[in-house]
């Protein structure tokens, strides 16, 4: 029984389901690539989101600090305006006192000339009172210098 049976296998066309399987596998591969890209994008967006959250956490303290600065500025601005008003009032008072003193000085000079006909070497001594502390000054320069110091001291809280 030396006979062998040979079966000739015909080469058959691929089964139609195999084509679909290959097509679906290609789609799966493509979708995996897209999914990887989307996961990378998601990771980047999460990182950016974390950075933005950190920056947003800084906003309330910065707003509070801004409000403190604004309040300080408004207070200092009000104090500057008040100080300027006080300086203007004191300057007006100085002018009034200087004018009053100047107006009384000629009368005193006239009385002095009548009482003593000899010329005086030093001239009449006038006393200027500081409008802030009523300190007496004998010269105009000393008076102006003193009043400026007195006003500066009063502005800084000394009086």
List the helices and strands and how they pair.
Elements: H1 16-115, E1 128-129, E2 136-137, H2 140-155
Antiparallel strand pairs: 1-2
Number of strands: 2
What's the overall average pLDDT, rounded? 81
How far is the first residue's CA from the last residue's CA?
A: 138 Å
User: What is the overall shape?
Assistant: rod-shaped
Strand order of the largest sheet: 1-2
Run of helices and strands: HEEH
Structural class by helix and strand composition: mainly alpha
Helix content: over 70%
Low-pLDDT windows of residues: 108-123
Biggest sheet statistics: 2 strands, antiparallel
Number of DSSP helices? Answer: 2
Strand content: under 5%
Report the radius of gyration as a whole number of Å.
50 Å
GO molecular function: K63-linked polyubiquitin modification-dependent protein binding
Organism: Antricola delacruzi (Soft tick)
Keywords: Coiled coil
Pfam family, one: CC2-LZ
Brief overview:
It contains 2 helices and 2 strands, in the order H-E-E-H. It has helices spanning 16-115, 140-155; strands at 128-129, 136-137. A hairpin with a 6-residue loop joins strand 1 and strand 2 (136-137).
List keywords for this structure.
two-stranded antiparallel sheet, single chain, 2 helices, 159 residues, mainly alpha
Your description of this structure?
Keywords: Coiled coil. GO terms for molecular function: K63-linked polyubiquitin modification-dependent protein binding. Strands 1-2 form a two-stranded antiparallel ribbon. Helix content is 73%, strand content 3%. It has 2 helices and 2 strands. The longest helix is centred in the middle third of the chain and has 100 residues. With 159 residues, it is mostly helical. It has a domain of 84 residues. A hairpin with a 6-residue loop joins strand 1 and strand 2. It starts with 15 loop residues before the first helix and ends with a helix. About 10% of the residues have low confidence. The chain is rod-shaped, with a radius of gyration of 50 Å.
